[in-house]
Design brief:
Blueprint: E1 6-14, E2 21-26, E3 29-33, H1 42-55, E4 62-66, E5 72-78, H2 82-88
Parallel strand pairs: 1-3
Antiparallel strand pairs: 1-5, 2-3, 4-5
Amino acid sequence: MPKETEARIRVRLTPRSGRNEIVGWRDGLLRVRVTAPPVDGKANAALERLIAKAVGVPKRDVSVVSGARGREKTIEIAGMSRDDAEKLLGQEAT
């Protein structure tokens, strides 16, 4: 069970995109595109960097905790509540 200071966000990642961008929320998933290929963890690393920059934390505080080899992943952001992370990533509070 995640601690209060660890936000877990479900992500749908599209690798080999034209640019790195956070597309927005759809069906409870944060949709993200990265230019990196899904080889040797490059797309996951690009995802972690992009999310870290978007929420203003160091890259070391963002990690893929499940789904590393699939398109749907769960990322964890240390030191941030889920509500705060969702606000910074453009999700309206429900």
